[in-house]
Specification:
- The complex is a heterodimer of chains A (about 110) and B (about 130).
- Chain A is an all-beta fold and about 110 residues long.
- Chain A is built from no helices and eleven strands.
- Chain A has strands spanning about 5, 10, 20-25, 35-40, 45-50, 55, 60-65, 70-75, 85-90, 95-100, 100-105.
- In chain A, the strands form two sheets. In chain A, strands 2, 4, 5, 6, 9, 10 and 11 form a seven-stranded mixed beta sheet that branches. In chain A, strands 1-3-8-7 form a four-stranded antiparallel beta sheet, with no helix packed on it.
- In chain A, β4 and β5 (about 45-50) form a beta hairpin.
- Chain A is globular.
- Chain A starts with a strand and ends with a strand.
- Chain B starts with a strand and ends with a strand.
- Chain B has about 130 residues and is mainly β.
- In chain B, the strands form two sheets. In chain B, strands 2, 4, 5, 6, 9, 10 and 11 form a seven-stranded mixed beta sheet that branches. Chain B has a four-stranded antiparallel beta sheet with strand order 1-3-8-7, with no helix packed on it.
- Chain B has strands at about 5, 10, 20-25, 35-40, 50-55, 60, 70-75, 80-85, 95-105, 110-120, 120-125.
- Chain B has no helices and eleven strands.
- Classes of the chains: A mainly beta (about 110), B mainly beta (about 130).
- The interface of A and B includes residues 34, 36, 44 and 99 of A.
Amino acid sequence: DIQMTQSPSPLSASVGDRVTISCRASQSISSYLNWYQQKPGKAPDLLIYAASRLQSGVPSRFSGSGSGTDFTLTISSLQPEDFATYYCQQSYSTPYTFGQGTKLEI
Amino acid sequence: QLQLQESGPGLVKPSETLSLTCSVSGGSIGSSGHYWGWIRQPPGKGLEWIGTIYYSGSTYYNPSLKSRVTISVDTSKNQFSLKLSSVTAADTAVYYCARRNTYSSSGGYYFYYYMDVWGKGTTVTVSS
């Protein structure tokens, strides 16, 4: 199985900050990387797919980059509704695997 | 607008079989290129992919669960289902169903998969 490791966790930030969450794969996964946001008691929401493609309806302050083994999710200016847990997930091969999550705290 | 809804017992006894159904509305489960899957999340923990199915019946399972998992599809009811046998307390989790979508690039040479529509999730507790 491909292991996905996120950092940091947790992450403390303030409204208006630019934040970066990192995700590293245990082997090269090209651009087969997705990012999800999950709020307490809710299902995950897709933010980014194929490493850098913004899902329809997701605000443009979210962006993704990277390829191979190292990936980044960036939020350019934190909004109050962005405080949540973020997961990366590889779709290079089954079993699809997720990172352990990064909780973004005020 | 596509919606998914999980249903099934919220309490299952140890050693018994967990059975859940995901009902798809606002779209067809037989739509080309879409797979349908199950993901679970134990209390306070991260996400674990269980498996996916195509409307034709083709399946992919997580090897860690493969001996206990069966995912099936009923196109006439626009539903797909999960069965997990011989459950233990470790199977206590929120279970989500989701659609796996596909993005193709470079003239269809590369195919990227992602889960873009999720159900709200259903909590299953394994306890006697």
